[in-house]
Design brief:
Number of strands: 0
Number of domains: 2
Strand content: under 5%
Length: about 140
């Protein structure tokens, strides 16, 4: 189809997590990228601790914290935008929502992650479990 339309064929390359992480961090701070995309990238940035076991246990690394602080000074122009950046920074993963179905396996995983997270004073554990289960359910329910 692409060849018939004269479009280049798209190929998928497998990027490492560190390469994807570097791209997200670069896009969040790039002044040449539109402001709307940079705000959306900050939301993606808030999920990075779920991709790294050290950050999952001990919190976001310095590069994520620095990117959020830079966005606070460079990206936010108005008090409302400053509040949005602060909200994203606070949410850098504490509790992004509750999975709301009765699937007992997900309830068990979330309950266990919540219990361990409470014992370790680390709400990111339960938050990341919720995100991963939500993503997995979405992937499984999509038609092949």
């Amino acid at each position: 189809m692409c060849r018939q339309l004269g479009l280049p064929r798209l190929t998928r390359t497998r990027e490492s997590m560190s390469e994807m992480r570097a791209k997200v961090l670069a896009r969040a701070g790039a002044p040449t990228v539109s402001r709307a995309i940079r705000f959306e990238t900050l939301k993606q940035l808030s999920l990075l601790p779920c991709t790294n076991p050290r950050e999952l246990l001990f919190g976001p690394s310095d590069d994520v914290r620095i990117a959020l602080e830079r966005a606070r000074h460079d990206l936010a122009r108005y008090p409302s935008e400053l509040e949005l950046v602060d909200l994203i920074a606070r949410r850098t993963i504490s509790s992004p929502g509750v999975v709301s179905d009765d699937w007992s396996a997900s309830r068990f995983v979330i309950g266990t992650a919540t219990l361990v997270g409470t014992a370790l004073n680390n709400p990111r554990l339960a938050a990341c479990a919720r995100i991963l289960l939500r993503e997995e359910r979405t992937r499984v329910s999509e038609p092949s």
